[in-house]
From TrEMBL:
Organism from which the protein derives: Senegalia massiliensis
UniProt-recorded Gene Ontology molecular function terms: N-methyltransferase activity; nucleic acid binding; S-adenosylmethionine-dependent methyltransferase activity
Annotated Methyltransferase small domain residues: 32-173
Record's keyword annotation contains Methyltransferase: yes
InterPro entries attached to this UniProt entry: DNA_methylase_N6_adenine_CS, SAM-dependent_MTases_sf, Small_mtfrase_dom, tRNA_Adenine-N(6)_MTase
Protein name: tRNA1(Val) (Adenine(37)-N6)-methyltransferase
Amino acid sequence: MLKENERIDDIELKGLKIIQNKDGFCFGIDAVLIANFCEIKKNATVVDLGTGTGIIPLILWGKNNIRKIYGIEVQKEVAEMAQRSMRLNNLEEQIEILNIDLKDTDKYIKRDLVDVVVSNPPYMSSGDGIVNPSDKKAISRHEILCNLEDIIVSAKKILKDNGKFFMIHRPHRLADIVELLRKHRLEPKTMKFVYPKMGKSPNMVLIKASKFGNPELKIKPPLYVYDQNGNYTKEIDEIYGRLD
């Protein structure tokens, strides 16, 4: 099952495991934070746009009673790795990985029927530095194959009325995010800023939006990743499940 430079990691959630390439793009804290931020009702249908190796669907499945999850991933090699992870966990029926361009999601998943869409998208715009368009890490981090509006448009097409869109991004893109969400009738409802530690500027923002929702934005209390001693804060430990 494993290919060169691959390993199997235990995600420490109900025995679930994931295949990752140690020389490629492995999941980080942002994927864990957005999966924890999602609010998902029982028997929901969920779509993860830009699923990568499938970590967000695995965490969501482990934490929630979900009917079906679709992971959308355009990179063939990465999507195939995610598919093998689902087989490893005997979840290939419950979590379906589609190797397609996310801009074509509505051609494979019916419009206006999805309860929740989640995305941990490329953070950097196409103008942020020179990148190799064939590099898997670059594709994951830069808007090479899709941009922010592509993701928001795809989410809007497949979400049911009042369906929820959850995303993690960088605060410096916040003006663009709000503008595009409202342009496509996904009303921002909740934001939570993530700080490396107290005294530093936020480096991530968690966002919840509702399709055709009424205007009312709530800012949740900040989340600090590290304390002044360089250790994970209690809230991060609770998210990772490291506390008894």
